Amino acid sequence: MKKLLIVVDMQKDFIDGSLGTKEAEAVVAEVRRKIEAYEKAGDEVVFTMDTHFDDYLDTQEGRNLPVKHCIKGTDGWRLCEELEGFAGRRFEKSAFGSVECGEYAARGEYESVELVGLCTDICVISNAMVIKALSPELAVKVDGRCCAGVTPESHDNALSAMKMCQIQVTE
Protein backbone atom coordinates (compact mmCIF):
# COMPACT_ATOMS: atom_id res chain seq x y z
CA MET A 1 0.00 0.00 0.00
CA LYS A 2 1.09 3.52 -0.71
CA LYS A 3 1.70 6.31 1.73
CA LEU A 4 0.23 9.78 1.39
CA LEU A 5 2.04 13.03 2.16
CA ILE A 6 -0.16 16.09 2.69
CA VAL A 7 1.74 19.37 2.33
CA VAL A 8 -0.30 21.93 4.23
CA ASP A 9 -0.45 25.57 3.10
CA MET A 10 3.16 26.08 2.02
CA GLN A 11 2.10 29.34 0.44
CA LYS A 12 4.04 32.55 0.03
CA ASP A 13 1.92 34.58 2.44
CA PHE A 14 2.71 32.12 5.25
CA ILE A 15 6.43 31.94 4.45
CA ASP A 16 7.66 35.41 3.56
CA GLY A 17 4.44 37.33 2.94
CA SER A 18 1.83 38.99 5.10
CA LEU A 19 1.92 36.26 7.79
CA GLY A 20 5.44 34.95 7.18
CA THR A 21 7.91 33.98 9.89
CA LYS A 22 11.57 33.02 10.01
CA GLU A 23 10.48 29.59 11.31
CA ALA A 24 8.32 29.05 8.22
CA GLU A 25 11.19 30.07 5.96
CA ALA A 26 13.46 27.62 7.79
CA VAL A 27 11.33 24.53 7.00
CA VAL A 28 10.98 25.00 3.23
CA ALA A 29 14.09 22.99 2.31
CA GLU A 30 13.11 20.11 4.64
CA VAL A 31 9.60 20.03 3.18
CA ARG A 32 11.08 19.87 -0.32
CA ARG A 33 13.32 16.94 0.69
CA LYS A 34 10.32 15.15 2.20
CA ILE A 35 8.30 15.58 -1.02
CA GLU A 36 11.22 14.31 -3.10
CA ALA A 37 11.58 11.23 -0.86
CA TYR A 38 7.89 10.39 -1.19
CA GLU A 39 7.99 10.80 -4.95
CA LYS A 40 11.15 8.69 -5.24
CA ALA A 41 9.43 5.90 -3.26
CA GLY A 42 6.41 6.03 -5.59
CA ASP A 43 4.11 7.40 -2.90
CA GLU A 44 1.53 10.15 -3.35
CA VAL A 45 1.87 13.85 -2.50
CA VAL A 46 -1.03 16.33 -2.30
CA PHE A 47 -1.21 19.95 -1.23
CA THR A 48 -3.72 22.07 0.66
CA MET A 49 -4.05 25.72 -0.25
CA ASP A 50 -5.51 28.25 2.16
CA THR A 51 -7.91 30.13 -0.09
CA HIS A 52 -9.68 33.38 0.69
CA PHE A 53 -11.38 36.04 -1.40
CA ASP A 54 -11.68 39.82 -1.46
CA ASP A 55 -14.32 39.72 1.30
CA TYR A 56 -11.90 38.03 3.72
CA LEU A 57 -12.05 40.82 6.31
CA ASP A 58 -15.85 40.35 6.48
CA THR A 59 -15.56 36.65 7.39
CA GLN A 60 -15.36 35.28 10.93
CA GLU A 61 -11.70 34.42 10.42
CA GLY A 62 -11.01 37.86 8.98
CA ARG A 63 -12.61 39.57 11.94
CA ASN A 64 -10.43 37.51 14.31
CA LEU A 65 -7.28 37.74 12.18
CA PRO A 66 -7.58 41.03 10.27
CA VAL A 67 -4.59 40.42 8.00
CA LYS A 68 -5.44 39.74 4.36
CA HIS A 69 -3.64 36.62 3.20
CA CYS A 70 -3.88 33.86 0.61
CA ILE A 71 -6.38 35.79 -1.52
CA LYS A 72 -6.99 33.54 -4.53
CA GLY A 73 -5.11 34.68 -7.59
CA THR A 74 -2.58 36.82 -5.72
CA ASP A 75 1.12 36.09 -5.53
CA GLY A 76 0.80 35.35 -1.79
CA TRP A 77 -1.76 32.61 -2.51
CA ARG A 78 0.70 30.63 -4.66
CA LEU A 79 2.87 27.83 -3.33
CA CYS A 80 6.40 28.99 -2.62
CA GLU A 81 8.76 28.81 -5.59
CA GLU A 82 10.68 25.84 -4.16
CA LEU A 83 7.51 23.69 -4.20
CA GLU A 84 5.26 25.03 -6.94
CA GLY A 85 6.75 22.78 -9.63
CA PHE A 86 5.74 19.55 -7.91
CA ALA A 87 2.80 17.62 -9.27
CA GLY A 88 0.05 16.56 -6.93
CA ARG A 89 -3.56 17.39 -6.39
CA ARG A 90 -4.33 20.76 -4.80
CA PHE A 91 -7.14 21.08 -2.27
CA GLU A 92 -8.32 24.67 -1.91
CA LYS A 93 -9.84 25.33 1.52
CA SER A 94 -11.41 28.37 3.12
CA ALA A 95 -11.35 26.84 6.60
CA PHE A 96 -8.45 25.63 8.74
CA GLY A 97 -9.08 21.96 7.91
CA SER A 98 -10.09 20.49 4.57
CA VAL A 99 -12.94 17.99 4.79
CA GLU A 100 -12.40 17.25 1.08
CA CYS A 101 -8.74 16.37 1.66
CA GLY A 102 -9.67 14.32 4.75
CA GLU A 103 -12.24 12.34 2.76
CA TYR A 104 -9.69 11.83 0.00
CA ALA A 105 -7.23 10.39 2.52
CA ALA A 106 -9.95 8.19 4.04
CA ARG A 107 -10.91 6.71 0.65
CA GLY A 108 -7.36 6.06 -0.46
CA GLU A 109 -6.59 2.86 1.45
CA TYR A 110 -3.20 4.26 2.42
CA GLU A 111 -0.78 2.57 4.78
CA SER A 112 -0.26 5.94 6.45
CA VAL A 113 -0.84 9.65 5.98
CA GLU A 114 1.83 12.15 6.96
CA LEU A 115 1.36 15.90 7.22
CA VAL A 116 3.95 18.67 6.96
CA GLY A 117 3.61 22.41 6.51
CA LEU A 118 2.09 25.54 8.00
CA CYS A 119 0.91 26.45 10.51
CA THR A 120 1.37 23.58 12.97
CA ASP A 121 -0.95 25.14 15.51
CA ILE A 122 -3.79 26.00 13.15
CA CYS A 123 -4.04 24.22 9.80
CA VAL A 124 -1.72 21.24 10.32
CA ILE A 125 -3.44 20.20 13.56
CA SER A 126 -6.88 20.86 12.04
CA ASN A 127 -6.19 18.68 9.00
CA ALA A 128 -4.63 15.92 11.12
CA MET A 129 -7.72 15.87 13.36
CA VAL A 130 -10.12 15.79 10.39
CA ILE A 131 -8.28 12.77 8.99
CA LYS A 132 -8.13 11.05 12.39
CA ALA A 133 -11.88 11.59 12.87
CA LEU A 134 -12.72 10.19 9.43
CA SER A 135 -10.26 7.27 9.63
CA PRO A 136 -9.57 6.37 13.27
CA GLU A 137 -7.59 3.24 12.31
CA LEU A 138 -5.37 5.00 9.77
CA ALA A 139 -1.84 5.81 10.94
CA VAL A 140 -1.70 9.63 10.90
CA LYS A 141 1.73 11.19 11.30
CA VAL A 142 3.14 14.71 11.53
CA ASP A 143 6.81 15.53 10.99
CA GLY A 144 7.37 18.42 13.38
CA ARG A 145 10.72 19.17 11.74
CA CYS A 146 8.84 20.06 8.56
CA CYS A 147 6.27 22.30 10.26
CA ALA A 148 6.25 25.76 11.78
CA GLY A 149 3.67 27.40 13.99
CA VAL A 150 2.61 30.97 14.53
CA THR A 151 5.15 30.96 17.39
CA PRO A 152 7.64 28.30 18.50
CA GLU A 153 5.60 27.84 21.69
CA SER A 154 2.31 27.30 19.87
CA HIS A 155 4.10 24.87 17.50
CA ASP A 156 5.24 22.80 20.50
CA ASN A 157 1.77 22.96 22.08
CA ALA A 158 0.16 21.71 18.86
CA LEU A 159 2.61 18.80 18.60
CA SER A 160 1.81 17.83 22.20
CA ALA A 161 -1.93 18.04 21.55
CA MET A 162 -1.63 15.83 18.46
CA LYS A 163 0.35 13.23 20.41
CA MET A 164 -2.50 13.10 22.95
CA CYS A 165 -4.89 12.35 20.06
CA GLN A 166 -2.78 9.38 18.92
CA ILE A 167 -1.17 11.14 16.00
CA GLN A 168 2.41 9.98 15.59
CA VAL A 169 4.67 13.02 15.89
CA THR A 170 8.31 13.12 14.81
CA GLU A 171 10.31 15.98 16.35
Strand order of the biggest β-sheet: 3-2-1-4-5-6
Structural class computed from helices and strand pairing: alpha/beta
How would a textbook summarize the main sheet?
6 strands, parallel
- Helix count equals 6
Strand tally? 6
Poorly predicted tracts of residues = none
> What average pLDDT do the residues reach?
97
Helix-strand pattern, N to C?
EHHEHEHEHEHE
Computed CA radius of gyration, to the nearest angstrom: 15 Å
Q: What helical percentage do the residues reach?
A: 25-40%
Short characterization:
By secondary structure, the protein is an alpha/beta fold.
What attributes characterize this protein structure?
alpha/beta; six-stranded parallel β-sheet; 38% helix
Outline the secondary-structure elements:
Blueprint: E1 3-8, H1 12-15, H2 22-40, E2 44-50, H3 60-64, E3 90-93, H4 99-107, E4 112-118, H5 120-134, E5 139-148, H6 152-164, E6 168-170
Parallel strand pairs: 1-2, 1-4, 2-3, 4-5, 5-6
Helix pairs in contact: 4-5, 5-6
Account of the 3D structure:
With 171 residues, this protein is of the alpha/beta class. Helix content is 38%, strand content 22%. The chain has six helices and six strands. It has a six-stranded parallel sheet with strand order 3-2-1-4-5-6. Strand 5, helix 6 and strand 6 form a beta-alpha-beta unit. Helix 5 packs parallel to helix 6. The longest helix has 19 residues. The mean pLDDT is 97.
